[in-house]
Amino acid sequence: MSDNFSPALENSKNRTVAWWLLCGVIMIYLQIVIGGITRLTGSGLSITKWEIITGTLPPLNETTWKSEFEKYRATPQYKKLNEGMSLSEFKYIYFWEYFHRLWARLMGFVFAIPFAIFLFQKRLDAPLVRKLILLILLASLVASFGWLMVKSGLVDRPWVDAYKLTMHLSLALITYGYLLWLFMSLFFSEKHFTVNPALKTFTVFLLVILSFQLFLGGLMSGLRAGLLYPTFPDMNGNFIPPSLKLSENWTLQSFIEYDANVFFPTFVQFIHRGIAYIFVLLTAWFTVKALRTKLNAPHKILILLLPVITLLQVLLGILTVINFKGEVPVTLGVLHQAVAILLLTNLLAVWYLFKKSPEYKS
User: Fold this and answer.
1) Cα 44 vs. chain centroid, distance in angstroms?
2) How many other CB atoms are found less than 10 A from the CB of residue 294?
3) What is the mean pLDDT of the chain?
4) pLDDT digit string (tens) for 239-297?
5) Alpha-carbon distance 204 to 286, whole Å?
6) What is the Cα–Cα distance from 113 to 39, expressed in whole angstroms?
7) What DSSP string describes 247-278?
8) DSSP secondary structure string for all residues of 189-221
9) What is the average pLDDT across 354-362?
10) What element of type H or E holds 354?
11) Residue 227, Cβ neighbours under 10 Å: how many?
C-alpha cells in the first residue's frame, strides 16, 4: 500500500477517477462562491430567460445588448430598484449571472465527458456508477431550483424569494458534500482512521448545527437582514430587538409574508448570531476532547484547523455585519460564504475519519 492512498488508489486508473472527483469538488466550491457574488451584487435577475443551449453565448453586439437590457427593464427589479441604470451598469450585473450559468455548463462538460470515457474503459464499478447517477440527479435538482428561484423575482417582487434562494444554496451544499464524500472514499486509507464512537457522534452534532447555521446564512442573504442591525455585539443597542418581544408578531403570516415588517429578518439574524456563539463554544470543547485522544496525522491536522477556520468565519461574520452601511459589503459577504464552505469541508472530513468501531467502515 502506498503512503498516501487507499487500496482503491493503488492503480493509476482509480487514481485518475479520484482526481476527477476532486476537480468536481473544487468546481462546485467555486460555483457556490460565484453564486454568492451574483447574489450580493444583485445580478441574479439580469438574465430573464433560461436558455440551456443558446444561452451559452453572451450578447455579441450592441443591438443584442440593448435587447437584453430591454428585457431586464421590464422586470420589477429594474422598475422598483434600478430605474435609470445605464447600459454599462447592466453589463456588469449581466456578467456575473452569465458567468454563474457558464460555469455550471462547464461543470456539466467536465463531469459528463470523463464519466462517459470511464464507463467505456470500465474504470467505474457498479456501486460508484449508482452514486454518480445520484450526483447527476442532485445537480439537475440544483439547476432546476435555481431557475425557480430566478422566476420568483421576475413577476411581482424586485428580488428572489428568500426561501427559494436558501433551498437553492442548501441543495448546492448537499451536492458539494456528497461529491466530497465520494472523493474521500477513494482518497483516504485505513491507516488514516481514528476509532472513537463518542467523538464521531459529537462531530455529527456539530454538523447538524453547522448545517442549520448555513441555512440561516442563506436566509440572511435572501432577506438582506444585515441592513437592519449593522452593530455588534448588540443589535442596534439591544440584546433582544423590540420586534421579537411583541407577541402579535409571532404569527405564521409573519414567516410567510416576511416583506411586510422587520420581524422575520430580525428573527433570522438574532438566531444566526446565537447559533454562532453556541457553535464556537462546542467547537472549542470538541477540539480539546479530540486532541486528548490518539489521532492519525491527517486527522489531527484537520481537527487543529477546525477552531482556526471557525474563528476566521466568526470574524468575517462580524466584519460583514458592521459594514452594512446602507448596502451589502460584497467582498466581506463573499469571503464569509467562502470560509463557511471551507468549515463545512473540514468538518465533513473530520467526521469521515472517525470510525465507530474497528470493524466499522465509513
Assistant:
1) 16
2) 9
3) 90
4) 999 999 999 999 999 999 888 889 999 999 999 999 999 999 999 999 999 999 988 88
5) 11
6) 30
7) GGG-SHHHHHSTTSSSHHHHHHHHHHHHHHHH
8) -GGG-EE-HHHHHHHHHHHHHHHHHHHHHHHHH
9) 60
10) strand 354-355
11) 16
